[in-house]
Structures are given as structure tokens and as C-alpha cells.
Amino acid sequence: MRGMENMKDFVVPGIGVDVVDVDRMKFALERTPKIRQRLFTEREISYCEKFRFAERHYAGRWAAKEAVTKALGCGLIQWNGVEVLRRRRQAPTVRIFGKIERFADMVGVREEELHISITHSELSAVAVCVVRRAGEDGSGGTP
To answer: Is 67 within a domain?
Structure first.
């Protein structure tokens, strides 16, 4: 992680996107079953395993984790430092932990300012994360 002295000029990118190949995720899950516990939280595993094509949901969550770290500008500094949550009939949200949470604190981004969207098909999963700070109305100015 960057030293505090280097953070004074750091600008949070504010947007991140990632795409994950579903077949590669399926291959990784089959080849190394314990990868689930290394990359995903118990809640994420429980959610994904409910579906017939679980690899699509794992791929979507992995893409979201990458998108979040890109939006923060820290890169993936902790395997499972981002948790994707899905509540019934609601858009997915994220929780951040450990090193990623500490990085977000250092750059002044709160967990509730991280907004994600995930989509997937048979072939790929894509996720986008936008950092939207309180008071922003989406037009670039304040309300």
C-alpha cells in the first residue's frame, strides 16, 4: 500500500470496470475447489451456489471486486477485502474489509459511496463501480 506521505497528491479514479471470462472462472473453481474460500466470503459462496450455473455468479462477483479496487485506485491488495451483497429485489452493494477498507479511509471514500452494477451471460461477467460522494447529483456539481 502507498505510504501516507505519497497520498497527498493521490486522486481517487472514481470509476472502475472489469470483465471476467466465465469459462476461466469455471476452470479455476473445478481445478482448485478451495479457491472459493480464498476469493469469496461465506455469504458470497452461499449466494452463488444456489444457482445452476454458479460460475457465472462467481465471475460477476470477482469482476465487481476488481471494479471496486480500480474505482478506489488501490488495485487488488487483498483477495477477499470486498464482499458483494445481494438483497432480494435490490441492486447489489459492497462491503469492504481490511487493507481495502483502510485504503478507502485514507483517501476519504466511505463504503456507502461505492455503487456497483453487475451483468453476466454464458460467456462473460462485467461489473462497474462508481464512487458517488454524498451531495453529488450525477451532473458533476452539487444539488
So the answer is: yes
